[in-house]
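#random but structural
TW: two for the price of one
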Amino acid sequence: MGKVDGKNWRPQEGARLGEWTLVGRGYLGKGGNGEVWEARRESGDGRYAIKMFGLGKSLKDRRRRFADEIRFLHGYTGEGVVPLVDSHVPEDTQEICWYVMPLAVPLDEALGDTPAEETMLEAVAAYAETLAVLAEQGVHHRDIKPSNLFQRDGRWEIGDFGLVTFPGKGDVTSPAVKLGPVNFHAPEMLEPGDDVDGGPADVWSLAKTMWVLLRRTRWPLPGEYRSGGEYSLQGHIALPWAGELDRLMQRCTVLHPAGRPTMAEFAKEVRACLAEPPESRETASIAEMQDRLAVLTAASHEAAQQAQERRNFLDRLALELDVLFTDLYGVVDGMLQNKFRYYESQPEPSEATRLLPMLMPPWAHQRGAQFTSPDQDGKAAVKFSFVVRLVNKLDDEAEIAFDLRVVHRHHSLEDYPFKLQRTWNAPVGSVQFARVLDEIRAVASNAVPDMLPVILRIVALADDHVPDWYAKARAGDI
C-alpha cells in the first residue's frame, strides 16, 4: 500500500501507524480516498477506526483530497460530524497518510431491520441540521449517501468527507473526473471539476437518502421525483405527512439547482413532521371556561342583540320612508304630466322645527326632489322634501317636517309664490306615525289644485319678462 518510515507497509493485523495498532479482522471498508480498519491505541481506551491512504504519485489528486479531508476535520469543532482524533500527513507521497476517528455505527446497522419511520426521519432531520450549519460556513459534503452516515453515542453523525469543499480549498479534481455518489448524486455533479455548488447537490442527495430509508430499499430512483405513482411515499408509509414529504421530495429533486430549497429549509420541514401536536386541554375544563365566558359576556351580548334589533328596525323605517318619497314623486310628476326635469335635492330648512341645524342626530332620514321646467332658464320648479329625525336615541319620539313649494326663478334669484310647511311629532312605529305619513300624502295631493295655476302662470311668462319681485330684490327692497 505504501511506506512507513521508508519501509514497505501493508495493512494487516498488528501493523502499527504511530501509536495505533490495526485490530485483527478489523477491515471495515474501502473508498476512493482510502481504506478503513479498526484500530486500538496503546492505552487501550475505546474503539476507533483508522482511514489510510498511501498510494504514490499516480493518484496524487486523491491524496491531496485525503489531506483536505483531514484539514477540514482538524478545523471543525461543531457537532454532527464524526470527529478527528489523530492524523498524519507526511510530505513524501510514498509515505502513508492517515487519520483516526471514533468507531461509529453505520446508519443501516443503527436503524436495525424494522426501524420506525419516526426514527428514520429523526436521523434525516439531524443530518440535515448538521449540513445546514456547514452550509452557512461555505462547507458542502458532496458525497451524501447512507453508507457515509452514522450513529455514535446516540447522536446522528456524518462521516467520510473525502469530497468536501470549503473556503480556501484548492481545486484538486481533474476536469475529467465526476464527483458524487453515482446513485445519489444530483445531475449537476456529472459536470467535471470542483466548480459545482455543493449546497443544492447535498439537498438532492439527502432527499434521495430519505426516500431510500422510508421506502426500505437500497437504491433511489434516478432523476426528478414524481409523486402519485407506484414509487410515491403516499400509500407506502404510515406517517401523517406523507403527502407533504412527497412534495418536499419533488422540490428537492428539481433539475435546476436554484429551484431546490436550502438545506436549512429542508431540515425545518423534516423536523416539522416530527413535532408533537399542540397540547389540548381536557374537554371538561374547556366546557367550564365556555360557561364562564357566557356568563361574563351575557350582558354585552344582550346589548349587542338589542342594538342589532334597533338597527334592523331603523332600516325598515327607512324603507317605509322611501315608499313615502315614491308616492310624493308620483303626485308631483303626475301633476306635471312628466314634462319637467327631475333632480334629487336636499331638504329645505324648516324654521318651525329647526331640524337641519342638528348636524348629527341620533338617527335621521331625509329625502328631497326638484322638478324644473324644460325651458332654457328653468324658470318654474316644484320642490318637495321631508325630514324624519329621532331626537333622543333612548326613545322613539320623532320630529317630522314636510316642505312643498313652487319656485319662480329669474336670473339666479328665486321666489316662492306657493309654499307649504308642516311639522309633526309622533313615535316611530306607532299608529300616530303612520297617520302622519298618510297626512303628508294627503297634503301633497290636496295642494295640486293650488299649485297648478301658479305653475301655469310662471310658464306662460315671456322670456324677457322681469317679475316685480325680482325688480324689488335688485333694488334692495327684499
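TW: number two ↓
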Amino acid sequence: MLFTVSSSSTVEESLFLDFFSAMEVLMGKLLNLMGVFALLQTLIPASLRQYIDRSLSMLWERLFPFVDPYMEIQVEQNVAGNRSPNELYKQVGVYVGSLRSALHTHDRLRAYRWAASEPISLNLQDNDCIKDSFDGVQVFWTKAVTNKGNAENNGGSTERKFILSFLKTDREFIVPAYLDHVSKVYADIQHKNSQRRIFTNLCDHWKENSFNHPSTFDSLALDAGVAERIMADLQVFSKGKSFHHRNGRAWKRGYLLYGPPGTGKSSLIAAIANYMMYDIYDLELTEVCENTELKSLLVRTSPKSVIVIEDIDCCDDEICDDSKEGADSNSSSSLTLSGLLNFVDGLWSCCGEERIFIFTTNFKEWIDLALLRPGRMDMHILLSYCSFHAFKKLARNYVGIQDHPMFSELEKIMATSSVQVTPAAIAEMLISKQDNPDAAISEVLAAFSRHVDTTIVNTQAHRRKVRRSYSSMYSLFD
C-alpha cells in the first residue's frame, strides 16, 4: 500500500517536471520568435508591414466574421471618383478635436494654432484612437494615415481617413443618428468661432460690417428677473426646431422692446445677438421703397440671425396706408403695412429658420394693434426708468461696489420720488466719477432729490415732436 502511494507520487512529480521543461522550451522558442518578428519589423518597409497587416486583418474577417463583435465605418478624406473633398471628413476632424475630456486623458496629441488670436487646439496623432459615447453607446474613432508608395519622396500618396468602430448590436443607435450628431456639433463650433456680423440695407441688398459690440446680459441694467426671463426664453427657442416643425410653425421668435429713450433697447439687442451668437440685420425702412424690396431683403437673411426694426412708431412716412378705401394691400409698388406684417409672420417669414424679429419703440401706444396681435410679437419687454435693482447693477459695473452706506437712503428716495432717471443718465454720472465711488453715489442721490429731471424734459420734448405728426400717423394705424 505504501509502495503504491510512493509510486503515484513519483509519477506526478515526473509529469510536472516534464510539463515544466516543455513550457520552458516553448517560452524560449516564443522569445526567439518575438526577436525574429522585432528584427523583421525593423527590416521590412513600413508600407509592406501595413500591407501585411491589412491582408491578415481582411483574411481574419473573411474566415471568422462572426468572431469580431465590432463593425467599422470609414470616413475618407477623398472619395474615389469624386474630385471634391469629403465634407464629412472635415466635420469628423473638428468633432474629434472638440472631445476635450477624452483628449485631456490622452498621452499622444497634436497641437496647432491657425491664427495668433486663436487658442491652441488639440487633436489626435496619426494612427491613434480615441473613445466617445453617444446616448450611452460607446464608440471609437481612429485617425488612420496610410502611405501609398514612397510618399515621403513625392513618389506616392497619403491616404487619410477616420474609422468609426462600434458594436454591431449598436448599429441602429449610430447610423445615422450619431453621424448627424457629429455634423451638428461641427456646425455649432463653426458658428461659434465665426466673426459676428451686422448688416444694413441699401435698397434691395445688404451691406456687411463686423459686429464687435461688448454688451452682455451681465452688463445690462435691467429690472429684477427680466434678464433671466429673456435668457430662458432664448434657450427654449434655440432648442425648439422639432417643436416648431411638429406644430406647423415657422421657427422664429418676435420681441417688442418698448420704453423711454436711454433705457437700453439697443444694448439689449446686442446682448441677445451675443448670447445667441447670431448676426444682426438692421432694417432701415427709409431705404425700402416697396414690398418686393422687403421680400428680397428677407430671403437674403441667413439663419441664426436677429432682424431689427427700430423706432417702429416713427415709420409712418415710410409705410403707406393700405387700409384706405381703394388701396391695394398686395401692391408691390409701395411699402405697405400689410407687406410689413407679411414680413413678420406671413408666408414670406418662413423663408429661413432660427431667426429673431425685434421691433423697438419709445411709445407702445402709438403702434397699430395689428402689430401687437398674438403670434407677431411673442414677448413685450418693457425697459423703463432706472430701478434700485438696476442701479445696483450699474454701480457694480461702473464703480466696482456691491454695497455702500448711502444705498439705503437712495433706495428710499427712488421708491418715493416722482423723479425718473434713465439707466443711460445714471451710467454717465457713474462714469464721470468712476475713481471716486462716494462722489458718484452722491451725484446719483442728488439727481433723484431734485424736482426737475433733464431726462424727463427731453422725453416730453420728444413726445411733443411726435404729437405734431399724430394726424398722419393716426391715418396709418387707425
